[in-house]
């Protein structure tokens, strides 16, 4: 009999444990294939990238859509030739965005707007998101500045205004012809060239003049659109009251039809100062008959060209004047005019104006201080010649656009000055 090895007593737990661990399974030849290893690495990399891209997408989306730091609407200027980094710095400095170049550039790239960013002055809304900010710049919705050109200015005065306005750039090579610019309120973005502004005013004038000329009264004693502008410029300078324009136009039209001189004071001023527009003082008696191509107290008919740039309303009034027989008008002391169709009534209206002016002068003159009798002027002192400083009949009054106008038209029915 063979001997058996002695049996060592074991605990139940030890009896359940294997005496020797089994060897690990051998990797198959397929698993050890380099292509499989590379493929597994690629798949792992793709999964990691996808997870990262998903996280980046969520982060970027939140950055694009999150409300921005602006506490109120703000205008920011993006200069010409500003690069991506420059724009990001400007926006951060102005408080439009709170992150730096990297986040802004990421947003631009995500929205495929790298080549679509436009310079200009932009209004960013309160709490505008990064998407809104980029979209505003891409769409080029620049701020439009309202620029008002008042009626009745000369071309030289308009050019001076445009030259002084800082939102425009460049210079104006030459002053446009009188009457070729349309006074109106326009909107321009900052940086608009001044020559472009002039061109727009000229195009607007051509369009409006063409429309009004087509609707003109057929019995007007004028033959060309240019003459209509000239007549409208006289109306523009004579009254600033909208309800008087057609009636003032009627006075001039009636005088033209009767071969009477127009005798418009603003034409005297234009003949003296040209495009500067204002005389800065009352018209002298000697200047009323001073020869000038524009002085309608001396010449017959219309002046050779406009004396200002009339607005749409004055053009309309000149093209369709009121149906009246009025030949005269004079200031009524309340900002308007008294109209009449005969010289006698006109003279009475002039008398009323003179009485009002005299009363006003008496009301405004302070009473003289009491002085001793010895202070009286000597009897040998010559008295002032009242005719030397007296204003002509139809005394100058401050009129529209600061011009000095002789509102009383003292022409006799045949057109000669009294």
From TrEMBL:
Full protein name: Endolytic murein transglycosylase
Membrane topology: Single-pass membrane protein
Annotated region (Disordered), positions in chain: 1-30, 350-418
GO molecular function, one term: lytic endotransglycosylase activity
Biased segments, Low complexity type: 10-19, 372-398
Entry EC number(s): 4.2.2.29
Any one annotated GO CC term: plasma membrane
Catalysed transformations (reactions): a peptidoglycan chain = a peptidoglycan chain with N-acetyl-1,6-anhydromuramyl-[peptide] at the reducing end + a peptidoglycan chain with N-acetylglucosamine at the non-reducing end
Record-linked InterPro entries: MLTG-like
Site for Important for catalytic activity, residues: 238
GO BP of this protein: cell wall organization; peptidoglycan biosynthetic process
Keyword set, alphabetical order: Cell inner membrane, Cell membrane, Cell wall biogenesis/degradation, Lyase, Membrane, Transmembrane, Transmembrane helix
């Amino acid at each position: 009999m063979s001997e058996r090895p002695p049996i060592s007593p074991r605990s139940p737990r030890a009896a359940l444990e294997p005496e020797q661990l089994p060897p690990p399974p051998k990797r198959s030849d397929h698993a050890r294939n380099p292509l499989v290893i590379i493929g597994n690495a690629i798949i792992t990399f793709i999964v990691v990238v996808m997870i990262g891209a998903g996280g980046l997408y969520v982060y970027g989306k939140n950055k694009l859509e999150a409300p921005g730091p602006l506490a109120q609407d703000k205008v920011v200027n993006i200069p010409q030739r500003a690069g991506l980094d420059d724009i990001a710095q400007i926006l951060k400095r102005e408080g439009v965005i709170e992150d730096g170049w990297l986040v802004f550039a990421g947003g631009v790239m995500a929205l495929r707007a790298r080549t679509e960013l436009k310079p200009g002055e932009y209004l960013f809304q309160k709490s505008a998101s990064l998407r809104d900010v980029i979209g505003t710049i891409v769409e080029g919705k620049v701020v439009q500045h309202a620029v008002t050109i008042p009626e009745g200015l000369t071309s030289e005065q308009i050019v001076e205004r445009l030259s002084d306005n800082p939102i425009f750039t460049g210079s104006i090579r030459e002053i446009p012809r009188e009457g070729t610019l349309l006074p109106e309120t326009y909107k321009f973005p900052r940086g608009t060239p001044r020559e472009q502004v002039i061109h727009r005013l000229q195009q607007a004038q051509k369009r409006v003049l063409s429309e009004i000329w087509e609707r003109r009264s057929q019995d007007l004693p004028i033959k060309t659109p240019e003459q209509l502008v000239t007549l409208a410029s006289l109306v523009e300078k004579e009254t600033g009251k909208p309800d008087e324009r057609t009636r003032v136009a009627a006075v001039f039209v009636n005088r033209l039809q009767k071969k009477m001189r127009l005798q418009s004071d603003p034409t005297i001023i234009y003949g003296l100062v040209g495009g500067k527009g204002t005389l800065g003082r009352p018209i002298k008696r000697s200047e009323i008959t001073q020869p000038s191509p524009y002085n309608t107290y001396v010449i017959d008919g219309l002046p050779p060209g406009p004396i200002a740039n009339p607005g749409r309303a004055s053009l309309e009034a000149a093209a369709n004047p009121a149906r009246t027989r009025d030949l005269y008008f004079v200031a009524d002391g309340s900002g308007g005019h008294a109209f009449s169709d005969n010289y006698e009534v006109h003279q009475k209206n002039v008398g009323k104006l003179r009485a009002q002016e005299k009363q006003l002068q008496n009301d405004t003159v302070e009473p003289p201080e009491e002085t001793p009798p010895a202070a009286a002027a000597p009897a040998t002192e010559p008295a002032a010649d009242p005719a030397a400083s007296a204003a002509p009949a139809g005394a100058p009054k401050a009129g529209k656009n600061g011009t000095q106008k002789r509102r009383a038209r003292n022409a006799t029915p045949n057109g000669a000055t009294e």
